[in-house]
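S.,

Sequence below, as promised.
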Amino acid sequence: MMQHLDEMSIEQILTEINNHDQKVPLAVKQALPQLEHVVKQVIETIEQGGKIVYMGAGTSGRLGILDASECPPTFGVSPELFTGMIAGGEKAIRYAVEDAEDNIELGRLEVAERLTEKDFLIGIAASGRTPYVIGGIESAKERNIPTAAIVCVPNSPLSQLVDYPVEIIVGEEVVKGSTRMKAGTAQKLALNMISTTSMVKLGKVYQNYMVDVQATNKKLRKRTVDIVRELTDVSEETAKAALKACQGNLKAAVLVCQFSIDYKTANETIQACQGNLRAAMKQLQCER
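The prediction came back faster than expected:
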């Protein structure tokens, strides 16, 4: 492969990287059936009161932490629902702690301390053979914890070890061995799909709106007002008043505006429908 990369112009290098990157979505597409199994297990785990834990080293670990950290503000879930574990701990999020990934016993110990049989462990390792992740998966299996792995090579040790392997075969990197490139992109896409699809199916999205978004800043407060307006065709003033009356509960505000009911009734209806806005709207329509 690119044995003369250093002799290329800037334009040529950028073009070469871009050409390689275009292969990633196609590789992810091939893994969609495997990803579907993972999503089904994520949903089942959450419905039964468990949590989703991503585990990786280096880039893979950081991507897991990134996805987990974005779920609470986007979908209004507890920070404990999706969590990430990285070899080397907090320091490794910002700085390379390269030897930590070789510690298989550390992986075993951290899983034993942090997970229960109600949880679901998803290992992330481009090579499919990171000792830290393998140790964690082995520890999980000993405790009857369901497991998955997102890898970028075929028939890896991790794939053979877990219940739900996801193999996204992206091929050799432009910079050989630099798995932060295509492999990292593939892992990010897969994690986006896993968390987003599971949240959609668990009622955190109505149509294509984030109806459990946490309005923690000016931008998001405006977004909640806009969502209420777009879903119910009311004025900005009416949407703001409804959100205020509903203590910021976007789903309740939608019901208040759509059905001219009070916050108490709206909130009780949502609770009765396990937080599913579509089901709540159908129930209120039937009661009319």
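The first helix runs from residue 10 to 21.

Coffee later?
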